[in-house]
Amino acid sequence: MKRIENAPMSKYTSFRAGGTARELLMPESVGELSEALRDAYSGDEPWILLGNGSNTVFLDGEFPGKVIMPQLGGEIEVSGQEDGNFLIKASADALLSRLARTAAAESLTGLEFAAGIPGSVGGGVFMNAGAYGGELKDCIVSADVLMPPEFDPVTLGREELAMGYRHSALQESGGIVVSATFALEKGDKEEIEARMADLAARRSDKQPLEYPSAGSFFKRPEGHFAGKLIEDAGLKGLRVGGAQISEKHAGFMINAGGATATDIVDLMHAVQNRVLELYGVLLEPEVRLIGPDYGKRG
Length: 298
Known about the structure:
The protein is of the alpha+beta class. It is 28% helix and 31% strand.
């Protein structure tokens, strides 16, 4: 198992900003992952699991514990059929974009929306990742999970996962995804690829993909769209240090150059305060902000 002390977490997160972690562990098998989780769970230090780092910012300074980042090989396989659908199984560290491309290559439809999501399968299930009207809960069948405190493997079905908007039951249970299985329909390969190309073009046109970011920074408040509230508040382009509200899409905060995690948090607060003042809506971050007091303890 690879271990890195005083790990610069800006290197492992898509915002390319933030502090360090006292120890970064990279288990390369389910057995090593289970062992690392048991040790962390029974210890006194805080710890967290990190997927692809696309929805996470480590605050400036040191996270005084362990970050566990599985490296399970990113395996993806079409594993059979069920009720007329085709099953495709992926390990937790497989990228959602690669999963969508693999499905398309097999003429399987249902994951086109995921082609541009920069996260991993494990993080996607944990957060019920979605885009352009699709969510993982729409096609997931089950997930293989390591459950505390012993982190023995169990399989949870769709109902047990209880996936909702940017939420799953794993956020309460502490279960760690090691793989997930999805049910997809057979489709026309050219139509599937055309749909993915259309979504990619729309994403490129509307989103600031040329800058480091964590995707949509705020959750969608009930009855509103975060980006519209921010734009209507006149905050497009607002900048604190190297962190900026994108000129292209107000729902995105970007690292415009040399941003620190403190810049990101200060800009977040400025946006929250202004939107609350004008519209009475408190925007909640979708991005995980990891500080010294964050993390699970045994």
